[in-house]
Amino acid sequence: MCQHTCSECKEPMSHDKSNSAISTTQTSSFVLPILVSVQSPSSHAPEFVTLPLEFEDSKEASDELELHRWPSSSEVLEELKQMSKIGGPMIIMGLLLYARAMISMLFLGHLGELELAGGSLSIGFANITGYSVLAGLAMGMEPICGQAYGAKRWHLMGLALQRMVMVLLCACVPIAFLWLNMKRILLWCGQDERITNMAHTYILFSIPDLLAQAVLNPLRIYLRTQNIIIPLTWCAALALIFHVTINFLLVSALKMGLQGVALAASWTDFNLVGFLLMYLCCVSVCLEWWWYEFMIILSGLLINAEATVASMGILIQTTALVYIFPSALSLAVSTRVSNELGANRPGKARTAMLVALGCAGVLAILATTFTTTMRHKWGQIFTNNNNILSLTAIAMPIVGLCELGNCPQTTGCGVLRGSARPTIGANINLGSFYFCKWK
């Protein structure tokens, strides 16, 4: 036992050496001790270390200061490095998934103008009522998994994955029922009957794809929030290789036409799910996605419906290509923000947000440049029809201008998702994509 005398009360104070206590003496103020459990290396019983309450106060003050200062250049570079590890492979994977959709459109274009228009209308309807709904529901598990990973609570991630897959499978039932009645809905909306018949055929053969998407969406989020990106990219690349082969088999060899293109897309998604499972041995997204797909349906009400719907299909493919980059940035910053918040580092989460918004501004300028300079060349990849090419060339610069706001907006929604506040992003999308545009 060791003893010393407190300068304030002149009474002896003693501490047992076996407790490995940290004594704190002060001459002007009383310090309330905090007991912290510490595991002794020589004993299974925990020991206690006495820490002053002022230690906790200083930590809170440090965190508060961290939240209100601008990041240094080294912190910005470090955050860019962290985001590039997530966003880089996500861009590659997004390009691979876009290539799958582009290949399907190419086969539709070679089948004929009517098939291209019908397939575009069907894809737009499917995105509005099916794919965006499943993707939006799956986004609900992103902040849970991201913050659980940051806090190292692994069991919560597994529970979120299992429950989200079950939720999406249940959601597939009403979506499939709606797809079965698509023809009646589109005819009631005044769509051209020939295009509607073609679109109805396409979507009937796309119904199996709902099951693949119900597993694929949560699985991708589950892996991405753990920074497991490279396997996703390799699986997408492998699925794309098979997609080309499957299209040639069903469309060219078996002469299945429009049905073959739809089945090939579904088959490819099932392949991707299978590859990911073998490796392992799923609201704001909806609102933004729906607006673009509504344009395809509304274009069917214009004069010369075949040309306008087909042109809108090409424009949607353009926006899908451009969207890959801000989307990957959004996913990267969502993961970074949720990880840092889960690890109780709000200052680093703020740095991630600022760096991501800066990158979004650069992407917006590049997207506008691309759509403006390629307006006369891009449509020729899909068709040689002069009416479709003319409409596409007129509209592409307008699409580019939209990206000046869309890139930062998409990134901002990623920040909100990572901080478990997707409702704010949903309200912003609802107001900007719908209420403002209809006024």
Total domains:
2
Number of beta-strand segments: 4
Total helices: the number is 15
The proportion of strand residues reads 5-15%
Tell me the strand order in the biggest sheet.
Answer: 1-2
Largest sheet: 2 strands, antiparallel
- Alpha-beta content class: mainly alpha
Helix fraction?
over 70%
Q: Could you tell me the radius of gyration in angstroms?
A: 28 Å
Instruction: List segments where confidence is low: pLDDT < 50 over at least 5 consecutive residues.
Output: 1-51
- H-E string: EEEEHHHHHHHHHHHHHHH
Which shape, going by the Cα principal axes? globular
Q: Report the mean per-residue pLDDT as an integer.
A: 80
Distance between the termini: 81 Å
Concise account of the structure shown:
With 439 residues, this protein is mainly alpha-helical. The protein is built from 15 helices and four strands. The protein has a two-stranded antiparallel ribbon. Strands 3-4 form a two-stranded antiparallel ribbon.
Give a structural overview.
The protein is mainly alpha-helical and 439 residues long. It folds into two domains: 2-52, no CATH class; 73-438, no CATH class. Helices cover 75% and strands 5% of the residues. The chain has 15 helices and four strands. The strands form two sheets. It has a two-stranded antiparallel ribbon. A two-stranded antiparallel sheet has the order 3-4. Helix 7 runs parallel beside helix 10 (258-280) and helix 12 (305-342) runs antiparallel to helix 13 (346-373). The longest helix is centred in the N-terminal third of the chain and has 39 residues, at 73-111. The radius of gyration is 28 Å and the shape is globular. 45% of the residues are buried.
